[in-house]
Amino acid sequence: MKLSELLADIEYGVIEAGENGLETEVEEIVLDSRKAQPGCLFVCIKGAVADGHKFAPDVAAKGAAVLVVEDEIDLGTEDGTAGPVMVKVENSRYALACISAAWFGHPARELKTIGITGTKGKTTTTYMVKSILENVGHKVGLIGTIEVIIGEKTIPAANTTPESYLVQKYFREMVDAGCDCVVMEASSQGFMLHRTAGFIFDYGIFTNIEPDHVGPNEHRDFDHYLACKKMLLKQCRVGIINRDDEHFERIIEGATCQIETYGIGESRHLELCKKDLRAEDMELVSQPGYLGIRYHVKGMMDFPVEIDIPGKFSVYNSMTAIAICRHFDVDPESIVEALKDIKVKGRIELIKVSDDFTLMIDYAHNAMALESLLTTLREYNPHRLVTVFGCGGNRARDRRFDMGEVSGNLADLTIITSDNPRNEDPQSIIDDIKTGIGRTDGKYVEIIDRKEAIRYAIEHGEPGDIIICAGKGHETYQEINGVKHDMDERVLIKEVLEELREN
Fold this sequence. Notes:
Layout: H1 3-6, E1 13-16, E2 28-30, E3 40-43, H2 56-61, E4 66-69, E5 85-88, H3 92-103, E6 112-117, H4 122-135, E7 140-143, E8 147-150, E9 153-156, H5 164-176, E10 181-185, H6 188-192, E11 201-206, H7 222-230, E12 236-242, H8 248-252, E13 258-264, E14 276-287, E15 290-299, E16 303-307, H9 312-325, H10 332-340, E17 349-351, E18 358-362, H11 367-378, E19 385-389, H12 397-410, E20 413-416, H13 426-437, E21 443-446, H14 450-459, E22 466-470, E23 477-480, E24 483-486, H15 489-502
Parallel strand pairs: 2-3, 3-4, 4-5, 6-10, 6-11, 7-10, 11-12, 12-13, 13-14, 18-22, 19-20, 19-22, 20-21
Antiparallel strand pairs: 1-5, 7-8, 8-9, 14-15, 15-16, 17-18, 23-24
Helix pairs in contact: 3-5, 4-9, 4-10, 11-12, 12-13, 14-15
């Protein structure tokens, strides 16, 4: 493809024209200097660990045809031969997104694109949307925290929102596989790093926002976190927003899209957002081994819903999905049918182990998520709430104290175990969690081996208990001293049940 075609949607300047200038033929797009080859276009990105500009001379020596840069570079060539074309842009990450979209033939234009952002609910909502739309015949691709799904192919996810080149590559593969829609999680980091640039979402969803992901390696403060997430509402045609979020007015400020809302109960601002969906008459559904919730959709649609995932946040997630799928003219019966059987790996995932008590796996791996989950489950009036969790090594110690304190306050019994100790001593991590629990009157036991901790929870389960294995969720490994070992909690639970039957 000619360089001029790749640069059609961005502003740039040409520092070095090379031999053929904008008529240069590009053979490949490369981000990793080690993969540079003759005829490639290399994008110099300033990363958190390394600056791609430093590798430009090596890439040029390997025969790169084009360098896309933010800073001018001295390639050190003095023999008079034409070097690569050097294109200067204001932001190389943004340029990469636009170049990638052009390279793959703008595949987003051939799909209905749905982007979901928010502090919580992104993963579950993407699977709900996929389930509903596929229930009426759409073929839906998915990009998210757990995996990428393209037809029958699944790819484990490294980031919630992949690099822009991969986003466009996946879009193209989805189109080629016959997909007509894609639903993807759009993270704040993804917006900050322009991974979602280069196309416009047909539908952008803002589920909620809470103080999270603020720190030296993510966002400098809450305002920056919010500003990054709000970028979605300037990159979509229709914005669908949780009207109940306390930051609603700040969320919609500066939005350039058509706005619709959803929420629970009567909307307080119908004069601001005429288009509205509401969930009313919520009722908890509970029996041993099963927790759910039912409610009635009101407003622009009118029908009852029951879902097999507990809690008020499940109502929000499903209402989000309904608000999206309404635009695809999905009938209420198909929505109800799809939502009734929705299952999301590692997100309040109920595992049948007993007729007497309930056991679930959830990804809650920080204090905010654990508190939200336990508070929700408390509403079901369990005999006991039992948590099984640890904390990751080589991460902020405060998280351990906070999670211990939350569990000590809200759970009847905490079973402290290992998560991903990484390069830390598992016992030291457990001791930090115990420090947090020590701020409360909560009861606890400590069992380093996660399988044995799960065994203890199952063996000591009492009628009416709700047991939560928290922190690992969809992960199927345990990282110890830099090595990832296979460890899937579903497998551990199965092994424990088989061993208990044998004994």
